[in-house]
Amino acid sequence: GATQAIRIVVAGDAKTGKSSLIITAAAETFPSNVPPVLPPTRLPEDLYQDRVPITIIDTSSSPEKRGRLFEEVTRADAVVLTYACNRPETLDSLSTYWLPQLRKLEVVRVPVIVVGCMLDKRSDQNPIRLEQVMSPIMQQFREIETCIECSALNLIQISEVFYYAQKAVLHPTAPLFDQEQQVLRPRCVRALKRIFILCDHDRDGALSDAELNDFQAMKLHKIYSARIVKCFNVPLQPSEIQGVRMVVQEKLPEGVDERGLTLTGFLFLHALFIEKGRLETTWTVLRKFGYNNEIRLRDDQLPPSVKKYPDQSVELTGEALEFLKKIFFTFDVDCDGALRSAELEDLFSTAPENPWNESPYLEAAEKTALGGLSLDGFLSL
Questions:
Q1: What is the pTM of this model?
Q2: Which of 58, 77, 47, 69 is nearest to 158 (CA)?
Q3: Domains (ranges, CATH) in the chain?
Q4: How far apart are the first and last CA of the chain?
Q5: Which long-range contacts (CB under 8 A, 24 or more apart) does 31-37 make?
Q6: What residues does the EF-hand domain cover (predicted)?
Q7: Looking at residue 79, what is its pLDDT?
Q8: Residue 280 burial (10 A CB sphere; 0-12, 13-18, 19+)
Q9: Any idea of the CA torsion for 8, 12, 15, 20, to the nearest 10 degrees?
Q10: Is the pLDDT of residue 228 over 60?
């Protein structure tokens, strides 16, 4: 369901600018006096357009308060880890102490934002490229969503810090994309395949220009000429549709054919959005089609379960039987009168998983001599 509130915990070495960062974000001005540890701080609700309440938890760096800090981290929706831009040793401690500690607490699923504070104190004689410094750390710790440097004193990129933290919670990477393998996760692929099929009205295996326009009811982004065009509740212009197709065709020729955007191209486009940091695009599409944060259909998208008394039985109507028979013969590709393992996988390829691979369904129906599921067995399940 929708996120009601976000809790962000700020941690890091002593004197790396944690409290100044929080006060400046909340008050939009640099504080003259900063207490050692702040009480929970609420950001203004209108600070970001999502208008989700954000509470920031400051933490003490003293060893005797470490238990309290880790307790807060386990309750966090996101963690901001700070280092001081003028003290390289505080950056080193992220990979030698803080990030390994988060893993020990088994909160790897919580997104981490790495923030370099006090950018104004870094010597101009020692310029560094953030990407060059952070790339090895991000390769080692895939839970890091974003790295950013800021200055509370000069009000540089302060609101962006918590914008990225909020974005990582509202549009998380982990359910969609395997950072280790750099591929879409299976459940994400299955959901996007279902959406593709629902939008492919003529069932020709490709989204035509007209079918692409059915995305007018949701946010659609196109990546072209190094910029992103947002279309919300308006039809895509012919040039914009052409732009979408050109991007896919250039990177993946089989993603487009004479009929339009293929399933391969559709999946590639979403992988591209994610790689470019536009996770909200894929999440918007998924949520419009009824998926929750676990990429399962929400309860309000599913028919209510049938309630019956112990002495009652349930029978399929004639209409339901005809529908299920049509499904069976559609997926019985080799026309042998049975659904084999690969055909069953294809049948459930738009579901989060194949439910018939588990008890009580796995052995509930008789199989044919070749291990397939007959029509009678299919209907009985």
A1: 0.75
A2: 47
A3: 6-170 (3.40.50.300), 183-300 (1.10.238.10), 318-380 (1.10.238)
A4: 30
A5: 36/60
A6: 319-354
A7: 94
A8: middle
A9: -10
A10: no
